[in-house]
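INFO  loader      accepted 1 record
INFO  loader      residues=693
INFO  predictor   begin
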Amino acid sequence: MGTNPPEQAALERICQWLTDREGTPRPWNALEMLQLALHYCDVPGLYAMLRDSAAEGRGGNRSQGMALRLAAERLNSALPRQLLPVNRAASRAQQLRRFAHLQNEAMAAISSAYEARGRSAETDSAGLGSLEALRRIAKAANSSLDVNETCDFTADAIVSVMDVDECSVWILDETTNRLVLRSTTGLNRDQIGQAGLQIGEGISGSAAELGRSIAVRDAWADPRFKVLPALDEEIYRSLLAVPVVLANPARLLGVLSIRSRIHRDFPSQEIEFVETAAEQLATALWNATLYQQTDERLRQRNNELTTLQRISQNLTSRLEYTEVLSTIAEQAAAILNADKAAIFQLDESAGDLSIVAAHKLSARYRSLRLQLGEGVAGRVAERRAPLIVEDALSDQRLRVSRELIEAEGYRSMICVPLMFRGSVIGVISVYSVAVGEFVEEELRIIASFADQAAIAMANARLYEQSLRGLHRNELLLRELHHRVKNNLQTVASLLNLQSRRTRSPEVASVLALSAGRIAGMAAVHDLLSAQEDEAATAIEIVNKMAEIASSDASATGMSVQISVDGDRVEIDEDRATVFALVVNELIWNAMGHGFDVGLKGRIGVRIEVDADMIKTSVRDNGCGLPANFELGRDSGLGLTIVQQLVESDLGGHFSLRNDAGCVAAVTFPLPRRAGNRPIPVLGSEREQSTAPA
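INFO  predictor   done
INFO  writer      dumping tokens
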């Protein structure tokens, strides 16, 4: 399959880059070329073209090992930068697989070019062996991110190709600046991770310090040789030490140490081979380092998110403002493993900041007030940008005196704004007793925490304002209840007084009935206001109405006994008032129209709950309804009011019938709570209340 002109030009550039052939010399952009090569690494024509390019440039003093080393150097030099932006493990693995394929095929093509040009059989055999070893090392380096596995594989491959007895890999520990034994084919393996050399110490340490290979025929006679008795290295004589150096960026990662039991020299071809292997190993070690750093960053980020989620849940579970502020101060110090913390709140009217909560700060420090733009906290609030103070004693931005800083004992601090809906509501300051304790990464963490803290503060303030408003409304409502009840009672008293003074029995009856109605309303009003958050029960409402009716009947000389029994069921406030008016009207209607003069009357009120319906009956033992009585046609004002209230306000049904007296029946749906759930019956037992007159 042919290639188009742009692709053909790209393939030629790749071949020139890998074989160092360029018509007009210019510096190569390693990252750009590696990206181009990775893009075309699956094009079969690339490697045939590369073989031809290597064959054309084979002349001169460049050996097969030098050609292979040049190509490997150029491929490996840009690999870390190619992988650095890749955060996902899957994407990194895919990049490494493509790189391994490119490297293996490129090495095979270059080696094939030298083989085709007629090298000697011995040289070809050595070259092919070296190539195979390098390919194996490259495959291991680019397919595994386990450092120990890669080191073991590299040491085994070198021993299998060279006429040597031992190969060991020493890795640089940057924290101690020591070369630590990581892998060996012939030394004491118990010393892996234990034995070490300082940079410049011994032959291997000297190679690391100088940054070049050192070959010694008689290691024991060399003054640089450092004896490590626990390694069991007495049987070895010759030694080759090759630094493992990453090309770009230039970085020492370790040393390859090759030993022989007999005295021998190390020809240039062998040194070139080990140096190429060292470059492959450097790439593998750096890839593993990048992967571990990425993995560590992901784990750290996951831990941060988990911590922030836990803290957020902790904050949002609290609504009391001072408790929320105290929790924020404690958690701000804890999340950065710091020593102290303060929460500054912005007073927009005064334009200043004051500490409203603190963790392990003195009362004197808590009394600080800062204007916007004043000190570090004032600057952060004014500019809406975080700040880090590495040394509080020398930072001129702090307004706090040196004496107070020393008294508090902190040296560094980090300060971030608290933002809610685009406005600054305060500042979080976190303090450490150490100098230069905080870094940019911690700034990101505390900034994320500040977002959660600002929301929690705003919610707590709204909750506090709502509580104050609710308390104020409760006081107003109680005053309103009190005034309404007093006014109703005054009107009822005036009507009762007027009924006793009138000479007309008919007028007295009407006035007494009106007074009873109003007194009933006042009583229900008082009952509901006394219940506060609890709903009144139907039994309580009827008992109250019966008590008032009995008292008023006794005052007018009537002889009536009222009894109440039934199920205890709650009635919501809206229906309770209407229900009370209905029951009150029916009791007064029975007393006013149901009994002949001189008859000792009995009135019974019964409440039952059946299939989500409340059934209330008012029964008297009076003379009953007149013949041919029709509710809609023959009702007076009282019964008309009852019918309208029951049907319109309670959504129920009202009826009258004769049954050894008159029975008034009111049926309406059981009140329902949130989610359309019926209010439960509080008990199946009967409550009996008798109010004699």
